[in-house]
Amino acid sequence: QKEVEQNSGPLSVPEGAIASLNCTYSDRGSQSFFWYRQYSGKSPELIMSIYSNGDKEDGRFTAQLNKASQYVSLLIRDSQPSDSATYLCAVTRYGGSQGNLIFGKGTKLSVKP
Amino acid sequence: NAGVTQTPKFRILKIGQSMTLQCTQDMNHNYMYWYRQDPGMGLKLIYYSVGAGITDKGEVPNGYNVSRSTTEDFPLRLELAAPSQTSVYFCASSWAGSSNEQFFGPGTRLTVL
User: Fold this and answer.
1) B41 CB near a chain A CB, below 8 Å?
2) Is A95 exposed, middle or buried (0-12, 13-18, 19+ CB in 10 A)?
3) Element (H, E) at B37
4) Cβ of A63 under 8 Å from any chain B Cβ?
């Protein structure tokens, strides 16, 4: 069973639209959830973290967490071509050691002008 | 602050050779991590450290070794390189454990022929 699953995409949206990225995880005890953005050939950078059920907004980004459904999503409003990147979902492993942050394979987003 | 720095940026090794990937952070973070990322895949944790003198295995430690003699430095050693170790290697650091934001270095692209 895969621990963190994401649709690999590519997800293509027109400029100005809402991009919706989804992630499911298998460890019901996971406590911390992150979205990282990775441009081609670059290192990941954190864009959102969320720890409790509900929505968390930061500018054009909204993270949504539903622990009962083991589901976390990222919405990008007013998508821009500069948002074109791979988005990695990461989840802590419950009961694991401090180093255990599990990454999904990522969803590639393409925003068309 | 330079953040997390890695050297070299690129390296080609022959099968059976050894090398050390260097990682340094200047943020006084306690936790440091080594990941590998294969094409189209998420990040896999190789080793991590919770402080100077303390290291532990991650998900894919075979063929690698680490040491942490100072807070700033966390080198990754490859012994007897194999083609399966061809990958992009990222070093990361965080103030505390996996529930905290991890800051990534620029990566080292390694090819083993």
Assistant:
1) yes
2) exposed
3) strand B31-37
4) no
pLDDT bucket at A95, cuts 50 / 70 / 90 = low
Cβ distance B45 to A43 less than 8 Å, yes or no, reads no
Contact yes or no for B42 and A103 at CB 8 A: yes
Q: What is the pLDDT of residue B19?
A: 96
Residues of B in contact with A44 (CB under 8 A): 43, 90, 104
- pLDDT score at A27: 86
Q: How many Å lie between the alpha carbon of A42 and the closest alpha carbon of chain B?
A: 6
Give residue-wise pLDDT tens across range B69-110.
999 999 999 999 999 999 999 999 998 876 778 999 999 999
Q: How confident is the model at residue A99 (pLDDT cuts 50, 70, 90)?
A: low
Give me B29's structure tokens: 């973070």
* 8 Å CB contact between B34 and B87: no
Closest CA to B45 of B57, B55, B54: B57
